Amino acid sequence: MMRMFWQLAGSPPIGRLEEVKVTRHRLLASGWAADRDSVIRAVEILLDGTAVGTARLDFARPDIAEYYAKPAWSHCGWRFLQSWRLIHHAFERQERVLLAGRHRLSVVAISSRHASAEIGARVIVLPD
Fold first, then answer.
1. Contact present, 22 and 81 (Cβ < 8 Å)
2. Mean pLDDT of 84-108
3. Fewest Cβ atoms closer than 10 Å to its Cβ: which of 23, 52, 74, 105?
4. Using CA atoms, how far apart are residues 46 and 108, in angstroms rounded to an integer?
5. Separation CA 108–CA 78 (nearest Å)
6. Is residue 85 domain-resident?
7. Is 71 exposed, middle or buried (0-12, 13-18, 19+ CB in 10 A)?
């Protein structure tokens, strides 16, 4: 299933996928996301184009607020931690199978005005 992301007038969200850690039991990803015209409503995590969850928002990132001179962005950090069992379940709902090996992890930030942008992607290797 291909996911479509669309953009309203204004600039798209910005951000970055900064850390990815794959263990035998979990997937951890973290970074930051912000929008110049509104607030970030969600950060969606996709694996091979399938949504597998949303990140927790509102982690402190004073470095980003200072760099962009945007005090409102001081808590623009996000984190995602999910068990492989729940990620497999997301694939099963789409009648797909998630096998061990190489996969594309992507992160999409979505603003309160429904603008979206991919803010990072990595190739990860799933354990057996």
1. no
2. 87
3. 23
4. 8
5. 12
6. yes
7. exposed
- Give the pLDDT confidence score for residue 62 in this predicted structure: 98
Domain that holds residue 59: 14-126
Identify the weakest region by mean pLDDT among 8-17, 74-83, 105-114.
8-17
Mean pLDDT across the stretch 19-27? 93
Residue 83: inside a domain: yes
Residue 18 resides in a domain: yes
Q: What are the Cα distances from residue 108, in Å, to 11, 53, 63, 93?
A: 15, 11, 21, 20
Residue 42 lies in a domain: yes
CATH number of the domain encompassing residue 58: 2.60.40.10
pTM of the model: 0.88
Whether 103 shows a pLDDT value over 70: the answer reads yes
Total of domains in the chain: 1
Token couple for 27: 């997937």
